[in-house]
Automatic annotation (TrEMBL):
<feature type="coiled-coil region">
    <location>
        <begin position="119"/>
        <end position="146"/>
    </location>
</feature>
<feature type="domain" description="Purine catabolism PurC-like">
    <location>
        <begin position="14"/>
        <end position="121"/>
    </location>
</feature>
<dbReference type="InterPro" id="IPR042070">
    <property type="entry name" value="PucR_C-HTH_sf"/>
</dbReference>
<protein>
    <submittedName>
        <fullName>PucR family transcriptional regulator</fullName>
    </submittedName>
</protein>
<feature type="domain" description="PucR C-terminal helix-turn-helix">
    <location>
        <begin position="455"/>
        <end position="513"/>
    </location>
</feature>
<dbReference type="InterPro" id="IPR012914">
    <property type="entry name" value="PucR_dom"/>
</dbReference>
<dbReference type="InterPro" id="IPR025736">
    <property type="entry name" value="PucR_C-HTH_dom"/>
</dbReference>
<keyword id="KW-0175">Coiled coil</keyword>
<dbReference type="Pfam" id="PF07905">
    <property type="entry name" value="PucR"/>
</dbReference>
<dbReference type="InterPro" id="IPR051448">
    <property type="entry name" value="CdaR-like_regulators"/>
</dbReference>
<dbReference type="Pfam" id="PF13556">
    <property type="entry name" value="HTH_30"/>
</dbReference>
Amino acid sequence: MSIERLALRLEKYGIRLVSGWQGEQREIDYINIQELPLRSERVHPGGFILTTFAAFKDEYEILSHVEWLITRKISALGIHEAGWAVIPDSLLQLSNTNGLPIFTIPVDLSYKEVFKEFNELLLGENDALRVRIEEMNLQLLEAVARDKGVSYIIATLGKYLSSPIVFLDQSLSIVSIWTNNNFNRQEFSLLVKSVLERERDALYREKYLEVGSALTESFSLQHDLVFFVLPIMEKIEKHGYLIIGNNGVEELIINSAIQYGKTALLLDAVKKKSLERFLKNQEIQLLEAVFESRNSLPNRTSNLSSSLKKMSQIYVFHFENEDLINYGFTVIYDKLDGRNSDKIIWIYQQEVICIASTPIEIHNLQEILSSLQGTYCGVSEYMTSKVEKDLLLKYKQAKHCIKLSEQMNVKLILFQDIGVDRFLFMIKEEDSMQEAAKELLQPLLDFDKRNQADLTKTLEVYLKHFFSLKKSAEELFIHRNTVSYRMEKIQELYPGIIFENQNEYLLFSIALRLIK
């Protein structure tokens, strides 16, 4: 409440405001009695300090103490005449110079009357404040119903709190800013962008929390404000981030206003995304049905929406640690701007799938993979999707790249760059070719199964190193004589076959790749 309002209530007791009138509009947050000349850190800003100064030695000690109280940013001072019947002129001058209101309290009056009037006023103000909050809440809900947008909601909340507010989207881009007359909007916008850029990594870690947390101390240097980040969340999905300036005073009613603001922002986001989510869910269901198809798909176009026909490339992210999938999904969704209609990103069979209409920059993929340990990415070739079979083929291509990336311990592989494996993949898509490969290698497979041997792997490595016993032994971690012995066993299974022959070499090399 303001000093002016309290002064009007105290006049009937003979309590008078005798100096520092220019500070009448200051707000009083609490009342405290201090009789001793102690300088305690418990003296907080906004206080109305009551005292007799009876424990102070002289006028100079009083002046020194009041100067210290001014540094603590108290709102007003009440001097009881039981201690000092006449206020020193030097103290009145200090009061007027600093705009510190001083009250005199009659000698026969107790402090309890001051507390009584303060509490009654505070109760009345709180009731009025609750009414204002409910009115603001109705205004916010009406704004959501009439699609007035985020900027209107932010402005409504900012005007009520009289504090600067910023709203960010999931990618930490500024959507809306509101400031009062104490803040230059352009300078404040530049400050926000500067801090966001510097603290981006920390923010990405903090924003997965469901509770608000301090943004950065960088903001607290401006106008004595501390800023807090409050995620706008629906279960685990985040729709944006509210940054609110706070002077450090926690009030239940102010917190209620902030909760109403967060609710309005959430309702607005959910309303806008409900139709988009419905359409995307239908498309995801169709995509999963296509991916799970075990038989060849018909060349039909009836089930493909216009947006799916535009999807030209599929990205599959595989995680060694499945516990990181939800976290990884959020990072990938944010980094690739999953809100846009040109992408669909979701979790499917313990992997994150992204299907996009335009190629994603390689450096963006590399940034994601560098921030997510134990993650691999396979990328299909770039081609339009005329029929469902095209989507299935691209999914298989991306999965094939994932298999290669794990074998080669390379985090990112593009189908267009895999060389001979691209040819082998196309052959593998023909079931007859794969069956032929399995039939050719069946003697080896059966021998390994019966004897718990490893002849199949030995032949693969032997051909890979162009018949070098030494290099094969080094890769298999066995003696070269063991490799020679195994090759003799293999030769017994394939009498008449000369593996060094060019045709036989190609035949068995391809067959071994096809069954992997």
